[in-house]
Structures are given as structure tokens and as C-alpha cells.
Design a protein that fits this description.
The chain is an alpha/beta fold. Helix content is 30%, strand content 23%. Bound molecules: shikimate-3-phosphate and phosphoenolpyruvate (PEP). Its EC number is 2.5.1.19.
């Protein structure tokens, strides 16, 4: 059997309350949607503040392969996207849900065959729902999971399709994002348990509308659980990408678990990013959360209370919330997140296993986790190639001596240089002279 040795990172222990200002790079979800919309647009456009990370670079590489011009202009976070005729090629999805679910509809519009593959671990992520939906809309596809092949015919009929999107909101977002370019547009009807991560579908709808695409949703008088995109041009829009609020949650959590104070600049006044929900979550756990203009500041409490919360809409925040809960003063229940078993890894199993291996008391439920705080000891924290598992381990490491995180580099999926940002945050705290009381 092949043995893989993964590097270990000594998660820094906070010697004092963390006090820092941390600026985060652009949102993964907005960047990858903006890239698709720019690629399908009627003219070139510029994206400013785009995230450059493994997931977004995979999207950039794939779109270039399919015939789209993408140049950096000045900063590598400024992208000039020039639409072109879509052609065939080979696409590497890595472990990126947004690449494996948003690109097959684009590939169906290409003049040529597009071969998709990705990381070994990506082969178990659910995909059949969107591939079957595309077949129903007229696409010619071989396979039900990675690797698979889309034989693009230069156009796609589109029309009405019924899917069960309870496994991932990305099935709906993927179909809607390209649908203005389908001959008949698309009507996506969901039939099944509730769709998770609704703010991400709202993000898709909002960005489509900004691009001049007509979208009807249940919220705007449409049929329940049904989204309709009319066929028509996608207008080129120059976009400034918001900072990634899900990535920000680990840094804000650092203030919460050390009684410190962390400020994140450029927090949007209004946003569809689910990371915004961290404000309510930290407030409910006893932290002080304030906005001062565009700055969001979290001040940690003396005692962090446990939380009973349905994270169905904001499942992406679960690893951060689980780390907070493991360090809280009372028990927590995280519910509504069965679909996390199909994320980068089975996040429910991974979180329970890693916290328990440090002496924690976490039980997996059918749709979540019960976390009872316990005295944690040092040890190895596995990341399972999951960026958010790695950052959750870093949060725990602030309060527990001797946490060694496997493969911290996996954070590059959405936040390259995480270790440096984390160390800079902690060195800012060291200069304040504040004493630890945790
Ligand atoms: O559309 C998106 O950008 C995302 C949707 C969500 O997926 P699920 O609905 O599969 O949870 C989220 O967890 C993921 O990180 C990003
Ligand atoms: C679930 C996530 O990613 P993906 O876009 O790969 O689904 C995530 O970033 O938490």
C-alpha cells in the first residue's frame, strides 16, 4: 500500500488575546460565478479583487482551455475576461465543487468534446444530479461522476427539468448560470428535501440579474421551488469582488476564543455571502460584534456560550462553528447539515473524529453534530484535503498546546498563504501587551 507522508504544521497557541486587523482576499463563490458570467458575456469585462487560489485558478485554466481569454491586468487579482467561441479540451476540477458543477453546462455549449477529471477525492462528490439534468436538457454526456465527458454540440436546447437538489445548491446554481445561452433558457424545478445553502442560490440569481439576465424565482412570484432563466444575452459587467466572508470566519473566531478583538475591513453592508451569518452566530455565543463603517469587529467574551443552531443555509461555516463549540463553556448542537457528508470530505465524520482524538466529546447525528466541551489535549489534526478542516484545527490550536495540523497547505484551495496571515494576526497580538485570561 502506498504511504503518503503529509507535512505537519505546529498550530500556534495564542499567548495573549488576539488583537488584529485582517484583510481577506476575494470571495471564491463570487469570483467563480463572475468568471462564468464574464465568459458567456457579449463583450469583455474586468474583475477586480478576484480571489487567486486553487479553486479559482482551476476555473481560470478551464475557461482558457475552452477558448476564453483571461489576462491579468496589473495585479494578479485584476482579470480581464474576453469571451470567445467555446471549444473542447480537458478540464481539471481539482476538488472544487464550483468547477465540477458550474462548468459542465458551459461545456455542453462548446464546439467539441470536454473531458473532466479531478482529484481522487473529488470522484466521490455528488454530480449525477446535474449531469442527468443536462442530459434531460439535450446534452450528450458519458459518466455520472468524475471523470466524465461532455460532447458539446455548440448549443443546447434547454427547457424544463426536475431535479432533487437536496444534496447541493450548486446543482441549481450550475444550471442557472449558463442557461441564458441555452436555446430555450431553463426552468429548474426542485423536488426533494429542502435545498441547502440558499444564500448561494440567491448569489447566483443576483449576479445573473446584474448581468441583465431575466430570472424568476419563488421569491419573485414564480412557482415554489422553481427557478426560470430566460434565454438572451449576458451583459458584460465590470465587477469588484467582495472579500471572502467564509474565510474571514476563522479569523473572527480567533477573537472569540481568546477574548481578543479582530477587525475585518471591507465587510459588505449587504451581501448574499453565507459568511455574513457569522455575525449572528458569534453574538449568540456571547461575543460583541460591531460594524464601524465598512469594518466589522468581533470582541471575544470571557466565556463563550454553546449554541443550538440549524446551519442548513450556511453549511460552509460548520467547521468554524464546530471549533468554536469545542472551546465553548456549554454544549452545542449543529443541525440541518447532512449534505456536508458530500463536501470536500465527510465533514461531520471528520470534525467528530478530529475533536474526539484530542479528548473531545462530539457525537455525529443524522444531520449534524452534538458537541460537549471537554479538556482537549495536543495531538495530530488531520485535514482530509479540506481547507476548512485545516482552519478549524488552527482555531482549536489557539487554545490547546501541541496541535499539529496535517497538510496546512490544503488551505490554498481558497486561501493561499493562510499560515502567514494567521502568524501575522498573532504577532500583532503579541505587541499589545494584553494578558491571556483563557
Ligand atoms: O455555490 C457555491 O459557491 C457554494 C455553495 C455551497 O455548496 P453546497 O450547497 O453543496 O453546500 C457551499 O457549501 C460551497 O462552499 C460554495
Ligand atoms: C463546500 C465547499 O467548497 P466547494 O465549492 O468545493 O463545494 C467549501 O468551500 O466549504
Amino acid at each position: 500500500m502506498e504511504t503518503v507522508s503529509l507535512s505537519l504544521w505546529n498550530a500556534p497557541r495564542a499567548e495573549a488575546p488576539v488583537v488584529a486587523t485582517v484583510a481577506l482576499p476575494g470571495s471564491k463563490s463570487i469570483t467563480n460565478r463572475a468568471l462564468i458570467l464574464a465568459a458567456l458575456a457579449d463583450a469583455p469585462s474586468t474583475l477586480t479583487g478576484a480571489l487567486r487560489s486553487r479553486d479559482t485558478d482551476l476555473m481560470i485554466d478551464a475557461l482558457r482551455t475552452l477558448g476564453i481569454g483571461i489576462e491579468t491586468a496589473g495585479a494578479d487579482t485584476t482579470l480581464r475576461v474576453t469571451p470567445g467561441r467555446l471549444r473542447g479540451g480537458a478540464v481539471d476540477c481539482g476538488l472544487a465543487g464550483t468547477v465540477m458543477r458550474f462548468l459542465p453546462p458551459v461545456a455542453a455549449l462548446a464546439e467539441g468534446t470536454v473531458d473532466f477529471d479531478g482529484d481522487e477525492q473529488a470522484r466521490t462528490r455528488p454530480l449525477d444530479t446535474i449531469l442527468n439534468a443536462l442530459r434531460g436538457l439535450g446534452a450528450d454526456i458519458d459518466g455520472d461522476s468524475l471523470p466524465f465527458t461532455v460532447r458539446g454540440a455548440g448549443s443546447l436546447r434547454g427547457g424544463r427539468v426536475t431535479i432533487d437538489a437536496s444534496g447541493s445548491s450548486q446543482f441549481v446554481s450550475g444550471l442557472l448560470l449558463s442557461a441564458a445561452a441555452f436555446d430555450e433558457g431553463v426552468t429548474v424545478h426542485h423536488d426533494g428535501k429542502t435545498v441547502p445553502s440558499m444564500p448561494h442560490i440567491d448569489m447566483t440569481v443576483e449576479m445573473l440579474r446584474e448581468s441583465g439576465v431575466e430570472v424568476s424565482t419563488p421569491a419573485t412570484g414564480g412557482e415554489a421551488d422553481t427557478w426560470r432563466v430566460s434565454p438572451g444575452p449576458v451583459r458584460a459587467v465590470d465587477r469588484v469582488i467582495e472579500p471572502d466572508l467564509s474565510n474571514a470566519t476563522a479569523f473572527l473566531a480567533a477573537a472569540a476564543v481568546t477574548g481578543g478583538e479582530v477587525t475585518v475591513p471591507l465587510w459588505p453592508a449587504e451581501t448574499t455571502q453565507p459568511g455574513d451569518a457569522i455575525r449572528e452566530i458569534l453574538l449568540a455565543m456571547g461575543a460583541d460584534v460591531r460594524r464601524d463603517g465598512a469594518n466589522l469587529t468581533v470582541r471575544g467574551p470571557q466565556q463563550l456560550t454553546g449554541i443550538d443552531i440549524d446551519l442548513h443555509d450556511v453549511g460552509e461555516l460548520t467547521p468554524t462553528v464546530a471549533a468554536l463549540a469545542a472551546l465553548a463553556d456549554g454544549p452545542s448542537r449543529l443541525r440541518g447539515i447532512a449534505h456536508l457528508r458530500g463536501h470536500e470530505t465527510d465533514r461531520l465524520a471528520a470534525l467528530a473524529h478530529e475533536i474526539n482524538s484530542l479528548g473531545g466529546n462530539v457525537t455525529e447525528t443524522e444531520d449534524g453534530l452534538t458537541i460537549v466541551p471537554a479538556d482537549l489535549h495536543g495531538g495530530r489534526w488531520r485535514s482530509y484535503a479540506d481547507h476548512r478542516m485545516a482552519t478549524a484545527g488552527a482555531i482549536v490550536g489557539l487554545r490547546v498546546d501541541g496541535i499539529e495540523i496535517e497538510d496546512i497547505g490544503t488551505t490554498a484551495k481558497t486561501l493561499p498563504g493562510f499560515e502567514n496571515l494567521w502568524a501575522t494576526m498573532l504577532s500583532a497580538a503579541a505587541g499589545t501587551g494584553r494578558k491571556a485570561s483563557f
